[in-house]
Automatic annotation (TrEMBL):
<dbReference type="InterPro" id="IPR034904">
    <property type="entry name" value="FSCA_dom_sf"/>
</dbReference>
<protein>
    <recommendedName>
        <fullName>NIF system FeS cluster assembly NifU C-terminal domain-containing protein</fullName>
    </recommendedName>
</protein>
<dbReference type="InterPro" id="IPR001075">
    <property type="entry name" value="NIF_FeS_clus_asmbl_NifU_C"/>
</dbReference>
<comment type="similarity">
    <text>Belongs to the NifU family.</text>
</comment>
<dbReference type="GO" id="GO:0051536">
    <property type="term" value="F:iron-sulfur cluster binding"/>
</dbReference>
<dbReference type="GO" id="GO:0016226">
    <property type="term" value="P:iron-sulfur cluster assembly"/>
</dbReference>
<dbReference type="GO" id="GO:0005506">
    <property type="term" value="F:iron ion binding"/>
</dbReference>
<dbReference type="Pfam" id="PF01106">
    <property type="entry name" value="NifU"/>
</dbReference>
<dbReference type="GO" id="GO:0005739">
    <property type="term" value="C:mitochondrion"/>
</dbReference>
<feature type="domain" description="NIF system FeS cluster assembly NifU C-terminal">
    <location>
        <begin position="10"/>
        <end position="76"/>
    </location>
</feature>
Amino acid sequence: MTSAELKLNVEKALDEIRPFLQSDGGDITLISIDNESSVKVRLEGACVGCSVNQMTLKSGVEMTIKKYAPQIQEVINIEA
């Protein structure tokens, strides 16, 4: 898989999870993919400072990204 395909797959994963975040007044943006194994995202809106955002990140976002791009090892939230 090329890095362009990897980015496309990660974006597909974010598109799948975005409606759930937006329904709670939040959103998510892809910041970068490092070494084709680590994804950096920014949780936005109501997701910032939300007490469950780490759980959302690990169980929802990371799981969905790994479904589309199994080589991803971790997802990191970069705070604004």
